[in-house]
Hints:
Blueprint: E1 4-9, H1 17-30, E2 34-38, H2 41-46, E3 50-53, H3 80-92, E4 98-102, H4 104-114, E5 120-124, H5 140-161, E6 164-169, H6 176-184, E7 189-191, H7 199-211, E8 217-222, H8 228-239, E9 244-247, H9 259-277, E10 283-288, E11 291-296, H10 299-302, H11 309-318
Helix pairs in contact: 1-9, 5-6, 6-11, 7-8
Bound molecules: adenosine-5'-diphosphate (ADP).
Adenosine-5'-diphosphate (ADP) binds next to helix 4.
Amino acid sequence: MLKRIAVLTSGGDSPGMNAAIRAAVRTAIYNKIDVYGIKRGYAGLLEKDFVPLDLGSVGGILQRGGTILETARSEKFKTEEGLQLAVNNLREEKIDGLVVIGGDGSFRGALALFERGVPVVGVPATIDNDIGGTHFTIGFDTAVNTVIEALDKLRDTASSHERMFIVEVMGRESGWIALTAGLACGAESILIPEIGYDIEEILVRLRRGRNRGKTHSLIVVAEGVASASEIKDQIWDAGGFEMRVVVLGHIQRGGSPTAFDRMLASRLGAGAVDLLLNGEVGKMVGWENERVVSHTLEYSWKHKHTIDKELYTLAGVLSI
Ligand code: ADP
């Protein structure tokens, strides 16, 4: 019988984390389970920064970006001593189920706790969309829409002033944001870490545009490929095109979650508590083929959710 669970958000924040907290808390209370929030992820777990959560404490947060529980990274948690302290703190507070909302690193931490006897489940929340076992992660859709809004605005001024922009978006190892937003905005070139880039090919596209009288252009680059200013210099040196650089940065992490992310977070937050109730621990919840599914925590990094190469090819065809 589950009596008391705890919820934490960890690693990089993403829009929709609050909606996931709310769903987990309310599903637990509906099932007569007490809920604690742990502040600042694993850092707060080590410092025993626990706060009781009731129905009201998660009111009015569904539409808010960020996370009311705050998030952090903790090196100490990764050590054996840190992990033991975390396990003891959960035991002392009589927590018999833990919901970890976060990305890849947070799931590795969750597995380390599970291996030390903690009944834990993971909820995939990161703007990178790179977690296996789910077709979407919480926050990705909102981040893509933020990028789209920026790209559309840049396109307006680019076409009015005959300007060319290189826009750097988030994604150290994952090209999902660059690819999806680039396709949705008709970017002339999309540079992602999974594929890499060839300056000559970018120049061919720019020349082709110029030859048919097109004087504006948008290039989207994921930060993991190179910085936008490096690409700008390479294009200038090799082809003589003058580009302007825009780095979108952390605005991609914030903002009110889209309808899709609110729905996803609500389903996955509730799904996590369902897993705990069923004793399906050491697992993550995911969203595949319109269903809440579960996989082991290891599955999330052993079957990384990599970009759809067909989408990349399509983006190239449509922006010819
Ligand atoms: P994200 O969850 O967004 O990928 P991080 O990679 O920063 O974020 O991970 C968040 C936290 O999870 C780290 O600060 C660390 O405390 C914990 N963590 C990450 N990797 C491991 C690991 N291999 N073992 C134990 N804990 C880990």
